[in-house]
Structure formats: structure tokens, C-alpha cells
């Protein structure tokens, strides 16, 4: 699996609606959080290894109503206990 984190800037008043749509419509989502700072939301997605990240972000996420910008980070390795 490929893990990516996507931060979302939303139009004013749209962050919670965008978060709801992400959870309802995007099966690859793991979790989404509202955040402070330059972006309104951050979400974690798991994609199949052969999935094109660029197409996923531009064709599935950036087109959601209320999204005005995204910033994508690709994760390489997860660290944790046990």
C-alpha cells in the first residue's frame, strides 16, 4: 500500500462539509482531521501500489465542492510501538 497525507484548504464555511464528503465518498481514506494553520483539513489515504497518486489527487480530491487547494505528502515508512 502507498500512504499519502493530503492537506486541504477549503472555501470559507466548507471545511466540515468537505470532511463529511471525504469520509462518505472516498473509500481510500483512513482518517481526516480539522487543523489550524494554513490548511483546514488533513487526511490520510491508503492507495494500491499501482495507483497513480497524481490522478487520484487531481481527479478525486481536488474536484470536491468546497476544496480550493491541496498539499500532498507521500509517506515512506511508518514507525510505532510493537
From TrEMBL:
Signal peptide residues on this chain, from the entry's feature table: none
InterPro entries, alphabetized: Dimeric_a/b-barrel, Tscrpt_reg_AsnC/Lrp_C
Domain Transcription regulator AsnC/Lrp ligand binding per the UniProt entry, residue ranges: 6-77
Pfam families: AsnC_trans_reg
Entry protein name: AsnC family protein
Organism the protein comes from: Aureimonas jatrophae
Amino acid at each position: 500500500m502507498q500512504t499519502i497525507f493530503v492537506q486541504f484548504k477549503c472555501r470559507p464555511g466548507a471545511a466540515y462539509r468537505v470532511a463529511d464528503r471525504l469520509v462518505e465518498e472516498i473509500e481510500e481514506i483512513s482518517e481526516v482531521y480539522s487543523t489550524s494553520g494554513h490548511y483546514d483539513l488533513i487526511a490520510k489515504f491508503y492507495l494500491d501500489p499501482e495507483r497513480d497518486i497524481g490522478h487520484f489527487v487531481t481527479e478525486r480530491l481536488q474536484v470536491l465542492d468546497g476544496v480550493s487547494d491541496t498539499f500532498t505528502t507521500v509517506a515512506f515508512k511508518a514507525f510505532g510501538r510493537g
